[in-house]
Amino acid sequence: MHANYASVISAQDLEIESVGTIHNDTNVDVYATITNPNNRWYTTFSYHFTFGSYTSPSLQSFALPGETKTIVGFSLTPPQGSGTPALVFEHINWKRISNHAILDYASWAKYRLRITTKNIVYTPPAQLSENSPLVVSRVTYTAVNKSIFDYWEVRFLIMGMRDGRPVALQRKVLSPMTSYEEKTQVVSWFGATQKFDRISIETEVDILNPDSYWSSRKGIIGVENITQ
């Protein structure tokens, strides 16, 4: 009873599952897997990564109730030998989902998060052309919005995986992404010679932010009042 009451009046902290790095020729990409353990709490926040005395620029993100996601810092330039990275949260803003507005949040969210990817094709590293020394690897996929909602922006984090961890990252954005739209995208890594054994694609759209929706005619009336 006490634990349930506590979850109603306050949110549990965001959980950091892992932090890792991908070393490129002149910079470093850093990624972290985080979880929002709260079923009725939504958060927006800023964050940065540290390597010893080095601090990355501040970045913005959000976490939906119960969501596990990957957040990243691209093209960071810590000094050589700076040590292992750490993730630091800043300015965390929590909002509780109103039971009066949304009784079953899981069903409400599933109805809006019907954005999938299909036809994922990975082309391993190969010469760009017969006479070029440049090596390129590619991923092609089709993004599909199966929901009835139009979104201003949907982000996709494409991760080339090897032995269970990311070894290459790229971000793609569709803006806007309309209801039932399908769009094929191509991601290229130039100079990357490491082969992937799996491709992972994470979709990101803030369904609790009214500004995420392109139009107000498709059932989002009341979104502005779902938190308290």
Question: What order do the helices and strands come in, and which of them pair?
Answer:
Layout lengths: L1 H8 L5 E9 L4 E8 L5 E11 L2 E2 L3 E5 L4 E9 L8 E12 L8 H8 L2 E13 L7 E11 L8 E9 L2 E10 L7 E9 L7 E7 L24
Antiparallel strand pairs: 1-2, 2-6, 3-4, 3-5, 3-7, 8-9, 9-12, 10-11, 10-13
Describe this structure in words.
The protein has 228 residues and is mainly beta. The chain has two domains: 94 residues, Sandwich (Immunoglobulin-like); 120 residues, Immunoglobulin-like. It has two helices and 13 strands; from the N terminus they run αβββββββαββββββ. Strands 3, 4, 5 and 7 form a four-stranded antiparallel β-sheet that branches. Strands 1-2-6 form a three-stranded antiparallel β-sheet, with no helix packed on it. Strand 10 and strand 11 form a beta hairpin. The two termini are 22 Å apart.
What characteristic shape results from the CA principal axes? globular
Helix percent band? under 10%
CATH topology annotation of the largest domain: Immunoglobulin-like
Major β-sheet profile: 4 strands, antiparallel
Structural class given helices, strands, pairing? mainly beta
String of helices and strands: HEEEEEEEHEEEEEE
What is the number of beta strands? 13
Helix count equals 2
Q: Which whole number gives the mean pLDDT?
A: 90
N- to C-terminal distance = 22 Å
The residue ranges in which pLDDT falls below 50 over 5 or more consecutive positions are 1-6
